[in-house]
Amino acid sequence: MTMAHTPRVSSVPAGTPTDISQGSRTRGGVGESTLRPDGTLKVTGAFAYSSDMWHEDMLWGHTLRSTVAHAEIRSIDIGEAVATPGVHAVLTYDDLPTACKNYGLEIRDTPVLAHGKVRHHGEPVALVCADHPETARRAAAKIKVDYAELPVITDEASATAPGAVLVHESRDDHHIAHVPHPNIVHRQPIVRGDAEAAAQRADVIVRGEYTFGMQDQAFLGPESGLAVPSEDGGVELYVATQWLHSDLRQIAPVLGLPEEKIRMTLSGVGGAFGGREDLSMQIHACLLALRSGKPVKMVYNRFESFFGHVHRHPAKLSYEHGATKDGKLTHMKCRIVLDGGAYASASPAVVGNASSLSVGPYAIEDVDIEALALYSNNPPCGAMRGFGAVQACFAYEAQMDKLAAKLDMDPVTFRQLNAMKRGTLLPTGQPCDSPAPVAELLRLVKARPMPPERQWLAAGGDGRTVDVRALPGGLSNTTHGEGVVRGVGYAVGLKNVGFSEGFDDYSTARVRMEVINGEPVATVHTAMAEVGQGGVTVHAQIARTELGVSQVTIQPADTRVGSAGSTSASRQTYVTGGAVKHSCEAVREELLELGRRKFGSYHPAWATAGLLLEGGKVVTDGGEVLAEVADVLEEEAIDIEREWRHRPTEAFDRRTGQGNGHVQYSFAAHRAVVEVDTELGLVKVIELACAQDVGKALNPLSVLGQIQGGTTQGLGIAVMEEIIVDPKTAKVRNPSFTDYLIPTILDTPAIPVDVLELADDHAPYGLRGVGEAPTLSSTPAVLAAIRNATGLELDRTPVRPEHLTGT
User: Which residue ranges traverse the bilayer (predicted)?
Assistant: First the structure.
């Protein structure tokens, strides 16, 4: 519907040229630190998250999960649960409505509800909905499941041993023909040059075996959603997710409904970091709503959340590097084994990233690389910020320090000597065709002033008063500086941006331009999941920049518009931002054409190609105003939906790993300064300085937040975060924030940031994906600093006190 605008009183006829003043230029566009529209609501507690949703007469859903990691299901008795007053439905595998009973991002190997066996601790077995959440929980507890436990697969040795139990007995996915064992999800070798021959030229060779722990995304908003049955037999689903259309593609076959009968709307998301890319409660809530005929809300508690989403792959990494005596790298060999857990999730893509980025931001001509992901009975692992590159960065940066030490070289100088740059060939044979300022990023972090020594002595005091918050152990008051040693470490990382290996990575944006109450207003509608990254802010900035309007409305994300892809892989500003820009450009051209038809006779500039929209006006590139946008539109509205794609990528060769698999690379470097209590093994990170190339900072304040947030997540896996899985039972030992520790404000150090803006000519505005790169290099920088303080090898993350004290 087109709304009429209020006529303006003007002393000059519409279309008569004037000049635009500086004060009338559009503000809040690209390059400005525009405040987030949801920021105040979130910090004041007024923002409505998915778990806050409510519907009249709604029921509450609950999931019964397996108590063992690998077992046959002999029987399920739901009788007592069904008889519980207030219960409206109890569902098991036998109640699923169609022949499609599995789902998955790439491989449909994940059962909606377990059938015949369970493959990991916490696997969904049955569903209950009732009129109160406690009733649903108690009814689920009455369900009796008879398990016959089976041997568990927990590592590579047990997964590939002769006669090993198969996690999936009847695999038929497209990877099975290319792996050496059915318990290997995917394998990607990369061979370039001759690593064996190059090793003969090395004056120094270093080897290392590294272990990377299982990290949780630890988002604060639990998995939650509300499913509402529709009169047409469909369902409306309001959910916190990262990828609406991927969810839809997986949900529809299980429900036996056409996609148009499943109407999905994004609800408030309390963080994601990859953990919402897979389905959690989406299908379950829909099944219960359709069975009961009532709205059903599901909200996981924190304990269940640890079982309700995938985690970061733990890894074993074996590396060999060689160098000449003057410090030039000769070759690299590595083998990376990722534990994907019971189901595939994003493991194939994680393998692709781990292999192709395993060299890091260094120029090495001769490489021999193998990366693979296992099926096991450990918790399923999939997407998490950094996506395969984090594990590799931890290992190759430890190797760089080992080589520098053996060559008696400064670790930063050694890295700079071997740093990749524009034109460097990656191990896949793909050239880096945009700026790669690796050496400069390292220079920036090294050049920063060091934080003062002995910070725990109160500033301005008598030099003896101790502030224990600045010491290892903090308020535990374990030391007043005795046994505390400072260490400094450096690291730099390489991360891809966007989906890779030939994936059709596109996004869609609908942009509408109309006059409301006499003012031009742009409305932007995408299916992008706003998970806290600030995309809604950037979309409004792009619309202001391209359309020259101050009033921009962002429509709620839903499936009424085409797919925006996943909010992951640092891709949304690049790809959905590119789609918004593309659609805005189409709207602008249509508006200018409308203006030419109406006012072209007033001024010859209407016939030129250099017209802009600025401050609600049509202007020449010299600033001359040709018309008001409101006068051009009048009663008309321009509404355009467009898809936008970045340049194509290609799959890696399955034998050699060669191919132009990535669309863009991002780089970040860190310097960590730590204080270590060498007697108790406690670590205090004092500073984590970062330098990162962002191409173009569309919103500098948001860029800073992304860099500092990613840095903090890397700090977590360095010194505290790890999901502990019992190697004998494959059960999770610490599914709570009591036992799974994440950095608090007291653990988070100062994070000064240097931002470079070296434009990538292939990207919208020259931007570069920001969110993941700082997660890579912060972890090895902290480990390097602890090694520097203690002299210990430290070949695993996270570092615990016993690793430092030997106890």
Answer: none
Residue 776 lies in a domain: no
Q: How far apart are CA 113 and CA 96, in angstroms?
A: 9
pLDDT-derived band of residue 3, with 50, 70 and 90 as boundaries? very low
103 in a structural domain: yes
Token pair listed for 165: 């139990």
Q: What is the pLDDT of residue 408?
A: 98
531 and 620 part of one domain: yes
What is the number of other CB atoms lying within 10 angstroms of the CB of residue 702? 23
Asked whether residue 246 falls in the same domain as residue 363, the answer is: no
Q: Is residue 518 part of a domain?
A: yes
Q: Do 144 and 168 sit in the same domain of this protein? A: no
pLDDT, position 26: 85
Q: What are 532-557's pLDDT values in tens digits?
A: 999 999 999 999 999 999 999 999 99
Token pair recorded at residue 784: 């390097």
User: Is residue 583 domain-resident?
Assistant: yes
Match 């996943």 to its residue by tokens: 566
Task: Give the sign of the dihedral formed by CA 86, CA 91, CA 97, CA 100.
Answer: positive
Q: Is 225 helix (H, G, I), strand (E, B) or coil?
A: strand
CA atoms within 13 A on the CB side of 53: 29
CA distance 91 to 43: 39
pLDDT above 70 for 276: yes
Q: Is residue 242 domain-shared with residue 194, that is, in the same domain?
A: no
Q: How far apart are CA 79 and CA 266, in angstroms?
A: 36
Name the domain boundary from 628, 645, 662.
645
- Do both 297 and 320 map to the same domain? no
Kindly state the tokens that stand for 173: 């996915």
Give the domain CATH number at 510: 3.30.365.10
521, 583: one domain:
yes
Residue-wise burial string across 28-64, b where 16 or more C-beta atoms lie within 10 A, e elsewhere: bbbebebebebeeeeeeeeeebbbebeeeebbbbbbb
Euclidean distance between CA atoms 235 and 144, whole angstroms:
30
| Percent of residues, the chain, with pLDDT higher than 90 | 93
The answer to whether 223 touches 281, Cβ cutoff 8 Å, is yes
Domain co-membership, 229 together with 140: yes
Three-state secondary-structure class, residue 188: strand
Determine the structural domain holding residue 537 and report its residue range.
Answer: 506-645
Which residues are CB-contacts of 632 (< 8 A; sequence separation ≥ 6)?
591, 594, 595, 598, 599, 618
Please tell me whether residues 144 and 236 are part of one structural domain: yes
Per the CB < 8 A criterion, the answer to whether 287 and 316 are in contact is: no
Q: Record the pTM.
A: 0.95
Structural domains in the chain (count): 3
Compute and round to an integer the Cα radius of gyration of the chain: 28
Query: What single-letter amino acid sits at 581?
Result: K
What is the separation, in whole angstroms, between the first and last Cα of the chain?
Answer: 72
